[in-house]
Design a protein that fits this description.
Strand content: under 5%
Largest sheet: none
Order of helices and strands: HH
Helix content: 40-55%
Shape: rod-shaped
Radius of gyration: 31 Å
Structural class: mainly alpha
Length: 60
């Protein structure tokens, strides 16, 4: 079997390929790492407290 001829690859094409591989690696890592849980809203007072304060306000 003969060895295939090696063709030179232009530097620009080589760098573009490396950037593409790097972007794929970053995306793969971002998708592999579990997302941090979203922060919950601070606890709110019960709805009964809000309704009673609205009833106490004088109507104008």
């Amino acid at each position: 079997m003969e060895k295939p001829e090696r063709r030179p690859v232009p530097l620009a094409a080589s760098l573009a390929g490396l950037r593409l591989i790097g972007a794929g690696a970053v995306l793969g890592l971002a998708l592999a790492v579990p997302a941090s849980p979203a922060q919950a809203d601070p606890p709110r007072p019960p709805a009964a407290t809000q309704d009673s304060s609205a009833d106490d306000a004088p109507e104008s």
